[in-house]
Amino acid sequence: MERNDEELLLPRPEVRVVQEELSVPSDVEITVDPPSDEGDEPLKAAGGESSKAQVSLPWKILVIVYGVLVGDAIASTVITPFVPDMCRTRFGIAEEQVGMASGALIGAYSLASFASSFYLGHLADKYGRKLIVLSGLMSGALGTFLFGLSPNFALAFVSRLFAGFFNANVPVTRAVCADVTEGQARILAFAYISACFSLSRSVSSGIGGAFTNIDFEGVPVFEDNRFLFPCLVGGLLNFVSFLTVLFFLPETNKGAKSADKKKGSLREGLKVVLKDWLMSKLILASCLGSFCNGGLLVAMVLFYSLAIEHHGLGFDPLRNGIAFTAFAGAGFIFQVYAFKRVLAWLGVVKMFTVSALLLCLGSVLLPSTAFIYWILGVNTTATIIVWVALTIIVCVVIATGFMCYLSTLGAMLSNACDDTRQGLTMGLNQSSSSLFRALGPFIIGIVFSVGVALDFPFFGFWILAALYLCSFLVLVRMSPLERYRVGDKAAEVLVVKEDDEAAASMEMFVIGEDDDDELHDQYDSAFIGQKIASQSNNTHNEARRNETVKEDEKVDRT
């Protein structure tokens, strides 16, 4: 195949980094796909005209997926507002043990998910996504309903384990998004998943808090158990999602059965994923983020509720609800209206690193609002200043970082992994993250209690800030090839295409503006060297074919 030199060589000031050297067959066509300065408008090769192709999403499938996530998240979190009251009044647990019992019931779901998500994700790769999603919705509906019926703590704990153990809808629905999207569209699809969680967090708080106060006098079962109705509503939402998926969601993993033998065992798949250094870094950052995000939510509510004389803000439940509703609402608005623009501006890698720094900064600034009461005293002016400070810190800094952190990580992980192991990879990430998500609130709660005893309840926030900074350091220095693998549009590369068989690749070049002649010469030398190597490989292959022909002729004569 003849090459056009104008297609192969970029202008001299555009070549900056040579990543790695591999041989390329002579019948390889090399094209340049640099991104545009605008998020959804990729450019053609150097000197070409820009294309106006917009990033489009398969909304018919994604709407069903997002409905599954919202319903599933509501069912799993609807118990949060009334769990302490349920432990006191229905289970008869002593006041000094209510906190521990409530934490155990809330965390049981994540612990069960930790034990099963990676295997359910593997099954989704082998047998299809739809079956696993349906089983998760049914187990979530039954588990939530049984929780409302539980007469004691033990049965309530078992029902939460049941709901979480057979439910891997978060990783599997992410795999569905990965099946039907790629590149920038995949990143946006994953971002809207976080918006679903923000929406469900607000709705579940309303259902769990308001519906327990409904009077069902004269209605059998419900009149003696005011916690059953919100659980019934949460379970019914999951059942509606079950019917929607059953009749309207197509199977997106088309090669599940045909590729079964090629994918290997679960053990082999785990080895492939964990041996990949980039995948390991992404999963580590996800675990740190899950620990910190879970711990931050607990630290926030404990700090809000702590009395002012103990260096908290002294919020009652109503003001707590207002603060968290504003936090969730701000995150939802950012995710829906601003995420796409910020992604186009920064790229997915920079967007993640900025979100980690925002969460680090917010974790340091949030407890500092208590100093306002120290300085000004408890009065109307100080209260107004506290709420203004909370609006800036929580609704801008923390909410923005919260919405970007795990959504960008999930998209990068999906882009970097093999398409045949999307379910396994998402499940492995969900399992490990679930463990850390369960540990985060528990450990940070203990640290906060120790800080209160020492009259300095800020240690937990500082630990979270340090861990967010560690996650930033894990991914801040990514090679050009790693940036390309995670779908960062800011990393412009030479894309190698082979006519019919994807068997080889060549060096990746990151395009920049501040280059020198030496780097340009490196590019020329690298490309010439690859052409020589390619010709040498072709000569060697031709000689082997000639030898094979001669041996066959000799056998025929014999």
Automatic annotation (TrEMBL):
The chain crosses the membrane at residues 61-83, 103-124, 131-149, 227-249, 282-306, 318-339, 351-376, 382-413, 434-453, 459-476. It comes from the Eukaryota. One of its GO terms (cellular component) is membrane. InterPro entries: MFS, MFS_dom, MFS_trans_sf, Tet-R_TetA/multi-R_MdtG-like. PROSITE patterns: MFS. Keywords: Membrane, Transmembrane, Transmembrane helix, Transport. Signal peptide: none annotated. Residues 61-483 form the Major facilitator superfamily (MFS) profile domain. It holds the Pfam family MFS_1. SUPFAM superfamilies: MFS general substrate transporter. Residues 541-558 have a biased composition (Basic and acidic residues). One of its GO terms (molecular function) is transmembrane transporter activity. Residues 26-49, 533-558 are annotated as: Disordered. It is found in: Membrane. It is a multi-pass membrane protein. PANTHER family: MAJOR FACILITATOR SUPERFAMILY (MFS) PROFILE DOMAIN-CONTAINING PROTEIN, MAJOR FACILITATOR SUPERFAMILY DOMAIN-CONTAINING PROTEIN 10. This is Transporter, major facilitator subfamily protein. It comes from Acanthamoeba castellanii (strain ATCC 30010 / Neff).
